[in-house]
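Comment on both lines for my students:
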Amino acid sequence: MSVTAVLDVGKTNVKLVLFDGSASLWQASMPNRTLAGPPYPHADVEAIWRFLMEGLRKAGAEHAIADIAVTTHGAAMALIGEDDLALPVMDYEFGGVGEIEAEYAPFRPPFDETLSPPMSAGLNSGKQIFYQQRRHPEAFARVRHIVPYPQYFTWRLTGIARNEVTGIGGHSDLWAVRERRLSSLVVSCGWQALFPPPIAAYAVLGPLRSEVRAETGLPDTVRVRAGIHDSNGSILPHLIAFEPPFTLVSSGTWAVIMALGADPGRLDAARDMQAYADVEARPVPAAKFMGGREYAVILDGASPTCSLADAAAVMAAGVLALPSFVPNGGPFPGHPGEIRGTLPAGEGMRAALASLYCVLLTDYLLEALGAVSGPLLIEGSFAANPVYCSLLAAIRLGQAVLPSLDSSGTAYGTSLLATWPEMPAREAARPAAGYGDAEALLGYKAAWRAALPKVT
């Protein structure tokens, strides 16, 4: 097998991972830092670029890299000028975008066109661009290309700017998912000429620029793939291995639930549900909540480990964690999180409560999506939490819960861009064992559901 280097830019961490087939050969990581400004909070792309160049130089000295693929978090667009960014890549948690909401509203495409719900802060990429154009018109006038965040790095690697549908097709307001075209927002704002033609995520964008080859020592035979949105990278192995219906729960800072084979007609914008575009531009019904962030808020610095006995104690005490513990995203926007009741004494109680909360919110969204059949594939931090997996297996009767064996699920999936649609053989995931006292769990679920805030 040939070696593929994957740059994985998450909201919290940045990784460079080398894969030879399904085996991880080499890895480096760094925290992902947000710069406060000016002109607004933005990604530290130069730090990430230095990390990438140094990593490719070190890894390339040990391994014969044949392909490079990039994946990043969503809700991030790069506005490229003649030879550099015309404006910084905005942090999607920047609340200042909200000040143009009234101006933006007449331009926002209807939900039926984009299947992209209105979201807070900068989580709709189109609203970010609208803000940048309205608040920074002189800098915006220098923009020559608008591309998703993965394609910013592939542009720097190759000098070629192209778009890619998984990047512009997720809660962006920029893409009509079912019609596979740029949305009416792009037309109304006159941005059509700024969006380069789309290219498949797995297509070869080009070879490395001579400057990159000189800095990294990599040969001119290295192929740079177009790149992919991170949740779509996670789902690539499963698109090969499974036939719909099946559902992927991709977890990290966000928990993104992607229901292959579900009906897009069930999507509810008020519950932060949307359709992504997959690697072949097909709509994928999805819902999300900030699972990793909310877990950490509920944990509040306590031990992150717990047992099923801890979960049983929390349920017996009737303690409920109710959404939402972050202001951005999720099916209950605008409702402050609340913990009702008093936790029993014990080191693992907060972790058990946080695990129960994430299980019940996952279950709620699976039901809302109509994802009631087929396996549930769990990747990321939730897969490493056996209490979460066991409780979910007990509550989703008739659906196998399959935790991933690989902690680098997004990076591994992205590596498959180099071989798509082929995939090297891997050990099959084993179903999670269920929780023994299903009656108690279902009673706790009923109490939690009854206490949920109403969605208007």
About this structure: DSSP finds 16 helices and 22 strands in the chain.
